[in-house]
Design brief:
Length: about 400
């Protein structure tokens, strides 16, 4: 038996006026997933424990079979692991976004125009983060480049519990009431604007009509991760496929194989088909489980891109799920697949919420007998089936 988790980040939503008061899951053409729904098990699952923020870190830990309440130490440490940073016991990692702020004279009066700086390229971002490191780096604080707009700051013996605001939570809003209270972090952010606004990389981006990465934004602090081994916990070997440092970091901490896919970007232009092909290959090569993470629906949700979110769901179905299951069937391989989001990212809100999400569990060897015509939020909720702790779904998938 092979096991698959197909995680569409932020895929769940509320009814959208532009879609005739339907959700993207209701509108998207997804024949392969809907075929599974007809003989599978549908229900709702709570992936974000009470009292925790609805981040992809917390929700993906739960989807991967870990109790966030017992192992979560912050988002940025997981990303730090992914980009090869070795953290000491007293180190604190911070997520360092490159963002686009509006051009008001006073920093406090600016707006969050783009939390991703127009999906800045990794090469451009590396130049900017190097400039930040050259200007602000010390024996105690260092800045490290990651992928696209996502980077890392390490503060030796740094502070925790700062309640910093994720930039994607305040898209199009004034930053005034969301600035950090820690004066060192606030000073870095203020000074970074003066450092970056006229940097040659940003001048070139503006000349091309692209958003400049004119400030850093620090958030998501935490200490060294406390995630235990996946194989020891569940008795199966697993692989992770994702374009996002956060998910790769969870996989590394869990001792899972992290598979790199050429052209995987974390956006709507990601290599959907390549992810599906890589998943099939790792399973047929002997791996027991593969966790396929696709960021595109979440990114579209943050940008309020209705059409893009529908398209992302359709491409997950057509370019990953369909070919993957056809390949397993052709190889005579039995499988179980869990399809789910980590959290909703409603298009109207452009940020994450902690609401339960719909899940679909299908086994090629048995039919649940209570399936539905399609996989949607409304139909999953109507089953009355509810998993209170998200991490319990992994045991359900594995039949444990």
């Amino acid at each position: 038996m092979k096991y698959i988790v197909m995680l569409g980040d932020g895929m769940a939503d509320d009814p959208v006026k532009a879609l005739g008061d339907r959700t993207p899951l209701e509108v998207a053409k997804k024949p392969n997933i809907d075929r599974l729904a007809r003989t599978g098990e549908l229900g709702m699952v709570k992936t974000v424990p009470d009292g925790m923020k609805p981040g992809s870190d917390v929700a993906n830990l739960a989807a991967m079979g870990y109790d966030p309440k017992s192992c979560y130490t912050g988002r940025s440490p997981l990303e730090a692991v992914s980009i090869g940073i070795k953290m000491g016991d007293s180190d604190v990692a911070f997520r360092c976004n490159l963002v686009t702020l509006s051009e008001e004279e006073e920093y406090e009066n600016k707006r969050m125009e783009d939390y991703s700086s127009g999906e800045i390229t990794t090469q451009e971002a590396a130049e900017l983060i190097q400039a930040v490191e050259n200007a602000f780096g010390t024996d105690k604080i260092q800045f490290y480049p990651g992928i696209s707009y996502r980077h890392c700051m390490i503060w030796h013996e740094g502070p925790v519990g700062l309640d910093l605001t994720p930039p994607h939570d305040i898209s199009d809003k004034k930053i005034t009431s969301h600035l950090p209270k820690n004066l060192v972090i606030l000073d870095f952010m203020r000074r970074s604007y003066d450092l970056l606004k006229d940097h040659p990389v940003n001048q070139a981006r503006k000349e091309k009509g692209m958003n400049p990465a004119n400030s850093i934004w620090l958030w998501g602090e935490g200490t060294r991760p406390a995630v235990s081994g996946f194989e020891a916990a569940y008795g199966v070997k697993g692989s992770v496929i994702s374009a996002v440092d956060l998910i790769k970091g969870i996989g590394i901490c869990a001792g899972m194989e992290v598979i790199e896919v050429e052209g995987a970007t974390g956006n709507i232009d990601t290599n959907f088909r390549g992810k599906g092909e890589a998943a099939l290959k790792t399973l047929l090569d002997g791996q027991d489980l593969v966790y396929i993470h696709v960021e595109a629906p979440d990114e579209c949700g943050h940008h309020g891109d209705v059409e893009g979110k529908v398209q992302a769901i359709e491409r997950i179905d057509q370019e990953i799920v369909g070919p993957l299951l056809e390949g397993l069937a052709a190889a005579g391989q039995e499988y179980s697949i869990l399809v789910m989001p980590d959290h909703p990212t409603p298009l109207a809100m452009k940020t994450h919420v902690a609401d339960p999400v719909p899940y679909l569990l299908y086994r090629s060897t048995t039919a649940a007998g209570e399936g539905a015509d399609t996989y949607t939020e409304k139909i999953a909720a109507a089953t009355g089936r509810y998993v209170e702790h998200g991490y319990e779904l992994m045991r359900k998938l594995l039949g444990k």
